[in-house]
Design brief:
single chain; alpha+beta; 7-stranded antiparallel sheet
């Protein structure tokens, strides 16, 4: 569901309940476009996340803290200076816009009472956090927008703040029946689209829900509705708006199996019996549950884009090199023909006439007659030497290419394993280890010192799962962890799992010196399949063996191992039933 005006209305009601009249105690800026405000209000101490990300703008209460830069950004320092201990007078939503305004009261350096506004605009790629004085002048914003970037509105210090009205939508809380009929029921598009495109803060799924409650097909043209149907649609819409005004919200997430497909602050009627619902006590807990994984993955994908680009470029270069080497290797297959030509010339060429361009001879290796081209300007002996020289050159080329092809294949295998590590990374510390590996092997230039203001990072640890039978299963997130898990952490009788002939994580099952139940092998295999390049396949072949039979060749790249006897199983990459342990 879009983070629409109705969801924001429910959040504003929740924030006023918990924060109105309270005081800000701490302001942090963990990301370039994100604030974490700690405040003490009627509901106790709360931590509020305000995110102006272009891909995932959000606002909700959270229990989780996030590490912040050692040196706070300028916007964060400005807020601390002015409203570091401000009182929260009111939290408002103008109209049904995707905007949240915080009215704040604080004392200046002289001890005089001053008022400020902190405004969060949740508008997709135009999302922003804007700090204004009591006259509506912008003091600063988390993103600066100049006239070169937008012809509608500048967001710069010293400019007046206003909400641009670019779509001419009606406020759903104040629209009357006549305006509703005129603006919506006369449109040639579908009824649901007519609602979402004419009314502020109504998302497409909310519009479909209104149509469903009115027993209408949201795809039917609004202009085709008769007077009775249009009146029924209006009254259905008004009942929902009355619930908004009375703050009658029931946050819930819609699931299809284990997959969350939608969320809303009203109970949806449009989803059938194949869907299930999970209710929540607050809008914040609903949003945090729904967006937690998505937000983490979005952030990590953004932060890993430079590493992905490095890996992808290196992979493409090595694959092109491999194709060229394979073509050259194919050319060396002619070498034995040239050797035979030389031998046959030496054997039968003593009677050749001078200036002869070719001659026929029986190949004594297969008793077939062949025609051997000759250079008429050379003697038979010189022609034989010419073919032997060509044979020698191709033989040396083949020997060199055999080694080069092996090196290139290992390089591709190494890069694919790093690419897989990027796919499963969850935290910045995971990315830090991958960056270290890329630097160590020369893909990234090594910097002398860390960037000023960089965050303190916790050490990345392998994934830890508990099998259904209570056995500990560990999964390496990258090549360094794979090596450490297999050769430092695991004991000889523990079991080692890996996807066959593809990039993937090392999976270790602690055996406790016991014989493992079959179900543990299946679950460990599922983990090895899930954390591999075969994650999207219906089934993945998994090799497994006791750790004592896994060896690391000398000078091998991290994560690379060899084993000569192993068992195999086919695993479905589904780990939904496994319990992950938070380290």
């Amino acid at each position: 569901m879009a983070f629409d005006g109705i969801t924001i209305s429910a959040l504003v009601a929740e924030m006023n309940k918990n924060l109105k009249g309270g005081r800000i105690s701490k302001i942090a800026q963990p990301e370039a476009d994100e604030l974490l405000i700690t405040a003490k209000g009627p509901g106790g101490t709360c931590r509020l996340l305000l995110c102006a990300s272009a891909s995932l703008p959000l606002i909700y209460f959270t229990q989780k803290n996030k590490p912040s830069p050692l040196t706070a950004p300028n916007f964060c320092m400005l807020l601390r200076k002015h409203i570091g201990s401000a009182r929260i007078l009111q939290i408002r939503q103008p109209g049904m816009e995707r905007v949240v305004e915080f009215d704040l009261e604080h004392l200046n350096e002289m001890g005089d009472v001053c008022h400020k506004r902190l405004i969060l605009e949740l508008m997709g790629k135009h999302s922003n956090l804007i700090f204004c004085d009591d006259q509506g002048m912008i003091l600063d914003s988390i993103k600066h927008v100049s006239s070169n970037m937008s012809s509608v509105r500048e967001v710069l210090p010293g400019r007046p703040y206003f909400i641009p009205n670019t779509r001419e939508k009606e406020n759903p809380l104040t629209v009357c029946e006549e305006e509703f009929t005129q603006h919506i029921c006369k449109k040639p598009c579908g009824s649901a689209k007519a609602l979402s495109s004419s009314l502020t803060g109504i998302s497409a799924v909310t519009a479909q829900e209104i149509c469903y409650r009115a027993s209408l097909d949201g795809d039917d043209p609004a202009g085709s509705l008769d007077e009775t149907a249009c009146l029924h649609l209006y009254h259905t819409f008004r009942r929902m708006m009355e619930d908004v005004e009375k703050e009658n919200f029931s946050p819930n997430i819609v699931f299809r199996g284990d997959e969350p497909v939608e969320y809303g602050v009203f109970r949806f009627s449009q989803y059938g019996s194949e869907y299930s619902f999970q209710s929540f006590d607050s809008v914040s807990s609903m949003l945090e549950t729904y967006y937690a994984t998505k937000n983490v993955l979005t952030r990590i994908r953004q932060k890993s884009s430079d590493l992905r680009r490095v890996v992808q470029t290196a992979l493409e270069r090595n694959r092109k090199k491999q194709l060229l080497q394979q073509k050259q290797m194919g050319d060396t297959e002619k070498k034995d023909k040239y050797r035979i030509y030389g031998e046959l010339i030496n054997t039968y060429g003593y009677g050749l006439e001078e200036g002869c361009k070719s001659f026929r001879a029986v190949n004594y290796y297969n008793n077939e007659e062949i025609t051997i081209p000759l250079d008429p300007t050379l003697t038979p002996g010189e022609n034989a030497k010419k073919y032997f020289d060509r044979y020698g050159k191709l033989k040396r080329t083949q020997e060199a290419l055999t080694e080069q092809l092996q090196d290139t294949a290992e390089e591709i295998q190494h890069l694919e394993s790093i690419s897989n590590a990027l796919d499963i990374a969850r935290t910045e510390s995971d990315l830090s280890q991958i960056r270290e590996e890329l630097t160590q092997y020369g893909y990234i230039r090594k910097h002398a010192s860390a960037k000023k203001g960089s965050k303190m990072q916790a050490k990345s640890r392998p994934f830890h799962y508990i099998s259904s039978d209570g056995y500990d299963i560990y999964v390496g997130k990258n090549n360094f962890q794979n090596d450490a898990l297999t050769f430092q952490f695991a004991s000889g009788n523990d079991w080692w799992f890996h996807a066959k002939k593809m990039a993937g994580s090392h999976v270790i099952v602690r055996s406790k010196g016991e014989e493992l139940p079959d179900r543990v092998f299946e679950e460990a295999g599922a983990l090895a399949a899930w954390y591999s390049k075969g994650r999207s396949a219906p089934k993945v072949e998994i090799d497994y063996i006791q750790k004592k039979h896994v060896k690391k060749p000398a000078s091998a790249k991290p994560g690379f191992v060899v084993y000569y006897t192993n068992y195999s199983l086919m695993a479905v990459p589904d780990i939904s039933g496994l319990q992950e342990v938070s380290e």
